[in-house]
Amino acid sequence: xxxxxxxxxxxxxxxxxxxxxxxxxxxxxxxxxxxxxxxxxxxxxxxxxxxxxxxxxxxxxxxxxxxxxxxxxxxxxxxxxxxxxxxxxxxx
Length: 92
Known about the structure:
By secondary structure, the protein is mainly alpha-helical. The protein has helices spanning 9-31, 48-69, 75-90, and strands at 38-39, 45-46. It has a two-stranded antiparallel ribbon with strand order 1-2. Helix 2 (48-69) packs antiparallel against helix 3 (75-90). The N and C termini lie far apart (45 Å).
């Protein structure tokens, strides 16, 4: 049924990770409503969802830049993206 999409395990894991992150944000919103907006990484007032979006968008740019400049393997941009995500969510 989905053979035309050429799904691979890394692609499936990427989407599972994104949907899991969205699920965690939903659970956090149910448990702690409001999410307390705060100054984010770009100097914008952001909520949890905004920070997730900025993290995902920044990670995509990190991977595209790495592929364009260095090529595979992709372990280093993965580590940089995890650091970027941590910075986006923990910056006060």
